[in-house]
Amino acid sequence: MSGLNKIYVVGIGPGAYEQMTVAAADILRKCEVIVGYTVYVDLLREHFTDKAFLTTAMRQETERCRMAFEEAQKGKLTAVVCSGDAGIYGMAGLMLELSEVYPETQIEVVPGVTAALGGGAVLGAPLGHDCAFISLSDLLTPWEIIEKRLLSAAEADFAVCLYNPSSRKRKDYLQKACQVMLKAKSPDTVCGLVKNIARSGEEMKVLTLRELADTPADMFVTVFIGNSDTKVIRGRMVTPRGYRAVLTE
Ligand code: SAH
C-alpha cells in the first residue's frame, strides 16, 4: 500500500517490451494494480508478474476508468495502460474528464510510442513533414466529420496517418477514405501499411493510393498516405523534409 491516491495513465508503446519507454516500465514496476483492455494487459503480464491485473473488454472504457479510481482510493498505486500513447485515441482524456468527480485522486500521464511513430519507423520516414492523424472509427465521431477532415488534409497536402482503418462492422471504411482523398490527391501518391507493429507477425507494404483503395485492412493495421513529395527509396516510404533540395540549390 502506497497510501497515495494516484493513478498513472501509461502508454505502453505498440507492442514489444523494448519499445516501452524506460519511464513507463519503471512506473509499472512500482504500481500495485494495472488496469487495461485484455489484449494490452496480456502483452504485459510476463514482464510484470507480481501485479494485480484488472481487465475489461473493448468499449468498456468508462468502466475501466472507474475501476482504476476505486483502486486508487483504496490507497493502491494504480496504472491505467493504453497501447501506443495514452493521449492518442487513448484513455488519458477520459481519465482527466472523469477525474473532475474524483478531485482527491492525482493523475499523471506517461507518454508512449504511438502507432504512427512505431509504424513510421518500419516504413522508413513517412511522416517527415507536416502530418495529420485521422481515425476512421465512427463510433464516437460522425462519418461526415471524418470525411471532411480527410478531404481537408488531402487538400492541404499533409502526409496522413490513419488509425482504426477497419473493424468487423466497417470493412469498407479504408476504401471510402481513399475515395475521398483521391478527390484531391494523385492516384500515384505513395502510401504504406504496417500490420502488427512491434508484435509477432509484423508486416509492411508500400503501395500507391490507387492500390490502397483496393487493399483490405483490419484493426491491427496503421495506414500512411504520403504528401505530393513522398517517394519510395530502396523500398521504404520517405516524405522528405527538403534537405536534398537545399543541398543541390
Ligand atoms: N493509443 C494507440 C491508438 C489506439 S487506436 C496508439 O497511440 O498507438 C487503435 C488503432 O491504432 C488500431 O486500429 C491501429 O490502427 C493502430 N495501432 C495500435 N497499435 C498498433 C500496432 N501494434 N500495429 C498496428 N497498428 C496499431
Q: How would you describe this structure to a colleague?
A:
The protein is of the alpha/beta class and about 250 residues long. The protein has two domains: about 5-115, 3-Layer(aba) Sandwich (Cobalt-precorrin-4 Transmethylase, domain 1); about 115-240, 2-Layer Sandwich (Methyltransferase, Cobalt-precorrin-4 Transmethylase, Domain 2). About 30% of the residues lie in helices and about 25% in strands. The chain is built from nine helices and 13 strands. The strands form three sheets. The chain has a five-stranded parallel β-sheet with strand order 3-2-4-1-5, sandwiched between helices. α6 (about 145-155) links the parallel β7 and β8. The model has no long low-confidence stretch (mean pLDDT about 95). S-adenosyl-L-homocysteine binds near residues 84, 88 and 89.
Structure summarized in a few sentences:
The chain is 31% helix and 24% strand. The protein has helices spanning 22-30, 38-44, 61-73, 92-98, 115-123, 143-155, 173-182, 209-212, 243-248, and strands at 6-11, 33-37, 52-56, 78-82, 106-110, 124-125, 131-135, 159-163, 190-195, 203-208, 221-225, 231-233, 236-238. S-adenosyl-L-homocysteine is lined by residues 14-15, 82-85, 88-90, 114-115, 119, 163-165, 194-199, 219-222.
